[in-house]
Amino acid sequence: MLRNQGSVSESARGKILEAAADLNYVPNRIAGTLASMSSKLIGIVVPSVGNTVVPEVLAGVNAVLEAAGFQPVIGVSNYDALREEALIESILSWRPSGILVAGLEHTDRARAMLKGCGVRVVELLDVDGEGIDIVVGSSQRMAGRKSAEHLLAHNYRHIGYVGHDIRVDIRAGKRLEGFRAVLHENGLNFVDQEFHPSMASSVEAGRVGLARLLKRQSGLDAIYFSNDDLALGGYFHCLEHDISVPRDLALFGYNGLEITRLTPQPLSTIRTPRIAMGKVGANLLLSGGPSTIVDVGFELVVGATT
Amino acid sequence: MLRNQGSVSESARGKILEAAADLNYVPNRIAGTLASMSSKLIGIVVPSVGNTVVPEVLAGVNAVLEAAGFQPVIGVSNYDALREEALIESILSWRPSGILVAGLEHTDRARAMLKGCGVRVVELLDVDGEGIDIVVGSSQRMAGRKSAEHLLAHNYRHIGYVGHDIRVDIRAGKRLEGFRAVLHENGLNFVDQEFHPSMASSVEAGRVGLARLLKRQSGLDAIYFSNDDLALGGYFHCLEHDISVPRDLALFGYNGLEITRLTPQPLSTIRTPRIAMGKVGANLLLSGGPSTIVDVGFELVVGATT
DNA sequence: AGGGAAAATGGTAGCGCTGTCATTTTGTCT
DNA sequence: AGACAAAATGACAGCGCTACCATTTTCCCT
After folding, report:
1. Contacts of B72 in chain A (CB under 8 A)
2. Closest alpha carbon to A142 in A198, A181, A112, A111
3. Is residue B122 helix, strand or coil?
4. What is the average pLDDT value for chain B, to the nearest integer?
5. With contact defined as beta carbons under 8 Å apart, do A47 and A100 qualify?
6. How do residues A71-114 score in pLDDT, each as one tens digit?
7. Using CB atoms, which residue from B55, B233, B264 is nearest to A262?
8. How far apart are CA A201 and CA B259, in angstroms?
9. Are the Cβ atoms of B94 and A71 closer than 8 angstroms?
10. Torsions phi, psi of B290, nearest 5?
11. What distance, in Å, lies between the first and last C-alpha atoms of chain B?
């Protein structure tokens, strides 16, 4: 009885809206969705909300969705593919008009559901791999390569790696792969690697990981971290133990978090356009265009730690 | 035709589920919700996803919701009361089984809608004020008071404040109020205050804010920051400019973010049990008990910066 | 084997809207 | 004023389920 379009006179409309406001009546969108067979819900499945990366992407997504009157339904998979599958199924049961997921790696069933559900799918953050429908991200492998090239160009040759569990964080694994490929191409390899199993505070993982690595190995001149959280932890370790950065040790991260340019020495890292990525993804989702792959690229930020 | 409870034989059930899996059929929960008049959606309205505070609370909430088969529908208000009102209305139109909002301050219409919508309401983060139904948080004013008492007990007397816009962040304003009250009770006042209008990076606000304050005032011996992000920024400023902490200047924050105990010197701050807060809130929401106020308290963390 | 309770199955109204079509009212032009 | 188009209103089926009741089948005990 309370629809905007078509056939309601303006005069009547005003009165009804007024009455509705008085009674604080809220229309039932569940019924509306069922009747119109098209919902104003958009599903979103992300791996975590640990650091600010995902929230920033979501901010971009949300800005677009909200402007278009859509409501996000969110699930957090904790980097667990089976959990992701379950979340996708659960979210799909709300018959969203579209769904955004992080990354390109999913279980077979999850892919099947996403392909067969009849709504647009956006995969965010990564472009290295086979997408389902729309893909918006930047190349993780290329980011790793560029990082390595940067360090080599600055004559670092004794490079260590400090990361978290790359079986869990597939994108970090791809970066590592790209980095290592460049090392190999130059007849080099990581001097040593430290994988921290933690999923909790990555800053802590970086701190602890670097401490362990330095205890094992001397002669390292640069560390590649799986991301800025870890790099930040490593930087804090250096500050506390009077390791001069970058003279004694260079540090390189990934993400380009805001905080990395506010530390006493800004960290060298790779900045990804996260908010833009979210906006582009959401816009493509709503636009109804063809399947596409958008590489939003990244920017190598030369800080003071290399 | 595909419901769990009641009257379907086990044998038949298996076959149907198998067929459903093959066709990757996903039940339509929209229809189910409409028919049963009870949804498995929970609304959540938060002011931002800037730092990790809100995501941590959400993680706690989400853990409970997911275990109970509920799906969160999220809105982000950007600290804007009118936007919050609109989001509440929008979310309510999905007929959630409950709704969680941040803080106790809302527009009159928002309060009216929350009171009249017929579902349980949880207000999170703060307990200083009049709640609608269930309130789970900790006293902001008391946190401010304890912070001031701590600094005074350590003989700091020339205290400055660096914060962001407290008209926007009401809880930060309450902490400031509590802090100032203790100063007054001891015949003191802030030497100077710096309010940074930024809503972007709070770390930057802290850095810039402290720099400005120190430019105006000499003789300050301690700074109270509106939260840890700001305090972190201030700490970075000190590190860069060789201001010895806490000898030259003591720093105190709020939140107890993980990162504050990983900096070269752990920051003094007040830690709030955010994940627990989220869990408690979600549990109370689902439990169906009476209206309550739960003060989850906080812990004053004496770091190395006071 | 017969009787009664329990379990399984089948059938159907209706949740609160939307889309559509039939009908009525209003407006406009000659 | 009459004729016609346009706008407004009214009426109603149906979206895909769930809740509920009626019926049928199965099971168990005497």
Report:
1. 73-74
2. A181
3. strand
4. 92
5. no
6. 999 999 999 999 999 999 999 999 999 999 999 999 999 999 99
7. B233
8. 8
9. yes
10. -75, 170
11. 65
Buried/exposed code over A79-116 (b: 16+ C-beta within 10 A; e: otherwise): bebebbbbbbbbbbbbbbbbbbbbbbbbeebbbebbee
Q: How far apart are alpha carbons A231 and A190 in whole angstroms? A: 17
pLDDT number for residue B3: 44
Cβ distance B193 to B161 under 8 Å? Answer: yes
Residues 6+ away with beta carbon under 8 Å from A289:
none
Strands A134-138 and A120-126: parallel
Token output for A15: 């009165």
Four-CA torsion B280, B283, B287, B290, nearest 10 degrees: 20
- The nearest alpha carbon in chain B to A238 belongs to B264
Helix (H, G, I), strand (E, B) or coil at A257: coil
pLDDT, one tens digit per residue, over B235-256 is 999 999 999 999 999 999 999 9
From the CA of B19 to the C1' of D27: give the distance in Å.
Answer: 29
As a whole number of angstroms, the distance between CA A173 and CA A273 comes to 20
- Rounded CA gap, B25 and B303, in Å? 55
d(CA B263, CA B253): 13
- pLDDT score recorded for residue B199: 62
Whole-prediction pTM value? Answer: 0.91
Q: Which residues contact A68 (CB under 8 A, 6 or more apart)?
A: A286
B12 CA from C17 C1′ (Å): 34
